[in-house]
Specification:
Helix content: 40-55%
Shape: flat
Number of helices: 1
Structural class: mainly alpha
Largest sheet: none
Length: 64
């Protein structure tokens, strides 16, 4: 009865991924995404101050 059979086995270590060198297209794409994210956050901040847009909802007829 030698060896270690029970318990959780350790996963094999995988080599670390090397950082990709970004070309100009990748950098431009990342920059564009950051700008769009900033615009969305600004719009959300403005919308919070105004309140909900659709307040009508479903109207239920009442008894007369």
């Amino acid at each position: 009865m030698s060896g270690r059979k029970g318990g959780k086995k350790k996963p094999l270590k995988q080599p670390k991924k090397q950082a990709k060198e970004m070309d100009k297209e990748d950098k431009a794409f990342k920059q564009k995404q950051k700008e769009e994210q900033k615009k969305l956050e600004e719009l959300k901040a403005k919308a919070v101050g105004k309140g909900p847009l659709a307040t009508v909802g479903i109207k239920k007829p009442g008894k007369k």
